[in-house]
Amino acid sequence: MPSFTVVRVVAGDDGQSRFEDAAPPLDEVRPGLGVGGVEAAAGVGFRRFAPGFASDFHPTALRELAVVLSGSAEYEVASGERRTLHPGDAIRLEDTHGVGHRSRNRGEGERVMLVVALPG
Questions:
Q1: How many Cα atoms occupy the beta-carbon half-sphere of 101 within 13 Å?
Q2: Which residue, 12, 28, 107, 108, is the most exposed by fewest CB within 10 angstroms?
Q3: Average pLDDT of 96-119?
Q4: Would you place residue 118 in the very low, low, confident or very high pLDDT band (cuts 50, 70, 90)?
Q5: What is the DSSP secondary-structure string of 16-83?
Q6: Above 70 in pLDDT, residue 61?
Q7: Are 58 and 102 in contact (CB under 8 A)?
Q8: For residue 37, what pLDDT is reported?
């Protein structure tokens, strides 16, 4: 069954953040239905980023999986590499130390994200 990609932001031993692409495995439990990637969550919430929002580099306070619900975001890691996310795209932030990442809204509107806090 075809999969999808989740963008990951991780930090190496040197504290430099980088992107990785991960394709969660899905098992076809019946025709047309793939299930997989289930793991524990510490909490679920939403974030609203006002039009024009932009952050400085920072490590994430906790590991989280976030899904863009509306608007678009650009994430940047220590190397200067950037990724743009649109509604339906997911990012897993695991850069809890080091330089971290930064993000900004793309376009003129606000961005809304569903955020799942991950344990550990």
A1: 28
A2: 108
A3: 96
A4: very high
A5: -EEEEEE----EEEETTEEE------SEEEEEEE-TT-B---B--SS-EEEEEEESEEEEE-TTS-EE
A6: yes
A7: yes
A8: 77
Of the candidates 78, 74, 72, 85, the residue with the CA atom closest to the CA atom of residue 101: 78
- CB-CB contact of 111 with 103 (8 Å): no
Which amino acid would we find at residue 54?
A
The single-letter code of the amino acid at 89 is D
Longest CA pairwise span in the chain (Å): 45
Bridge pairing between strands 43-49 and 102-106: unpaired
DSSP-assigned beta bridge partners for residue 28: 34
3-state secondary structure of 98: coil
Give yes or no for residue 2 having a pLDDT over 80. Answer: no
pLDDT at 36 over 90: no
Indicate the pTM of the whole model.
Answer: 0.91
Q: How many residues does the chain have?
A: 120
Residue 81: closest CA among 54, 101, 59, 66: 101
